[in-house]
Amino acid sequence: MRRAAILLPLVAVPILEIYLISRVGTAIGAGNTVLLLLAGVIAGALVIRYEGRRALRRLQNAMTENAGPHDTVAAVPGPATNRAAADAGLAIAGGVLLIIPGFISDALGLLCILPFTRPLVRRLIGGAVGSQVAKRTRFGAAVGEARRMQDQMRMHQPDGKVVQGEVITPDGAHIWQPGDNTPEPGPGRLTG
């Protein structure tokens, strides 16, 4: 049953694409249909080139903002990094769907690249993938536990905001402050 659910779209979508291309071809002519399909291929290549680069740049910026005290990326990415990664993936997937000849794939590609429909597609795919990961593996629980541990390791104000500052022991010895990224431990400094 599960294989039939996977194979049905793989067989049905190309048949629907051919049917739709033939219907459009009879309505506007074969030459215009070919030009429309070529326009989709060119648009997809441009989307991958420009929007993909821009989305990857946003992902890189979000990962740099998520860096810890030693300028290393945190073990568990934050929401901005996840959103930027999903946008980068959707932009590239949208470009690939536009390159594939057909009007259904073009419509799905446009849903992935348009700025006002991308958040909806991101939530839809994220919810489906997240529920499947949580159901089928222990990875979902491990990610949730890692995020809880990361949140516990940060200092928080009562309203939940992260407090930036230095760490001082009860006896007043300075342990760490932002900018202390020296690899060698000194007196009163934490290692690692």
Characterization of the model:
The chain crosses the membrane at residues 27-48, 90-116. It holds the Pfam family FxsA. This is FxsA family protein. The protein has helices at residues 2-28, 30-65, 79-99, 103-113, 118-136, 139-153; strands spanning 167-168, 174-176. With 192 residues, the protein is mostly helical. It has one domain (2-153). It is elongated, with a radius of gyration of 24 Å.
What coarse outline follows from CA principal-axis ratios? elongated
Total domains, how many?
A: 1
**Low-confidence runs (pLDDT<50, min 5 residues)?**
188-192
Q: Please give the radius of gyration in angstroms.
A: 24 Å
Amount of beta strand? under 5%
What is the total tally of β strands?
2
Determine the fraction of residues in helical runs and give it as a percent range: 55-70%
What is the typical, i.e. mean, pLDDT? 75
- What about the largest sheet? 2 strands, antiparallel
What is the strand arrangement across the widest sheet? 1-2
The first-to-last residue Cα distance is 52 Å
Tally the helices: what do you get?
6
Give the topology string: H per helix, E per strand.
Answer: HHHHHHEE
Helix and strand composition category: mainly alpha
- Quaternary state of the chains: single chain
Topology:
Blueprint: H1 2-28, H2 30-65, H3 79-99, H4 103-113, H5 118-136, H6 139-153, E1 167-168, E2 174-176
Antiparallel strand pairs: 1-2
Helix pairs in contact: 1-2, 2-3, 2-4, 3-4, 3-5
